[in-house]
């Protein structure tokens, strides 16, 4: 069985491959499909939660490739901080460091 992990991040893909190694499946990433000559659709990831963004990616890749797919997304949330000022999905991990794209805390 082939399963698509909707990520272009090779480190995430290798980590998941090692976790699922005991299962009888071939775990593919977006770079694997690109290497086969397939066009990878751009997905907007404009949801307000990690779950919404992961769902957008999974649905887009399923529609494009017609194979089982899962996707993950992340966000940054702090205890005791109002929802309207949470960084949420407005963070990125670049070379192992987190960057806030937008954060405005009212003190």
What do you see in this structure?
The chain has 107 residues and is an alpha/beta fold. The protein has two domains: 2-70, no CATH class; 75-107, no CATH class. Helices cover 30% and strands 16% of the residues. It contains three helices and five strands. It has helices at 10-19, 30-35, 50-65, and strands at 2-5, 26-28, 69-70, 91-94, 97-100. The strands form two sheets. Strands 2-1-3 form a three-stranded parallel beta sheet. A two-stranded antiparallel sheet has the order 4-5. The model is unreliable at 101-107 (pLDDT under 50).
Write a brief structural summary:
This protein is of the alpha/beta class. It contains three helices and five strands; from the N terminus they run βαβααβββ. A three-stranded parallel β-sheet has the order 2-1-3. Strands 4-5 form a two-stranded antiparallel sheet.
Count of folded domains = 2
The major sheet is characterized as:
3 strands, parallel
What average pLDDT do the residues reach? 84
Structural class: alpha/beta
What is the strand arrangement across the widest sheet? Answer: 2-1-3
The amount of beta strand, in percent, is: 15-25%
Report the span from N to C terminus.
52 Å
Overall 3D form: globular
In terms of quaternary structure, the protein is: single chain
Helix content: 25-40%
Low-confidence stretches: 101-107
The rounded Rg comes to 16 Å
Task: Count all strands and give the number.
Answer: 5
């Amino acid at each position: 069985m082939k399963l698509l992990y909707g990520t272009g991040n090779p480190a995430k893909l290798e980590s998941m491959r090692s976790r699922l190694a005991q299962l009888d499946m071939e775990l593919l990433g977006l770079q694997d499909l690109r290497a086969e000559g397939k066009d990878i659709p751009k997905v907007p990831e404009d949801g307000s939660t990690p779950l919404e963004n992961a769902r957008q990616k999974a649905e887009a890749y399923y529609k494009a490739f017609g194979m089982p797919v899962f996707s993950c997304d992340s966000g940054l949330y702090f205890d005791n901080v109002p929802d309207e000022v949470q960084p949420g999905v407005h963070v990125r991990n670049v070379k192992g460091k987190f960057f806030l794209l937008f954060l405005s805390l009212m003190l």
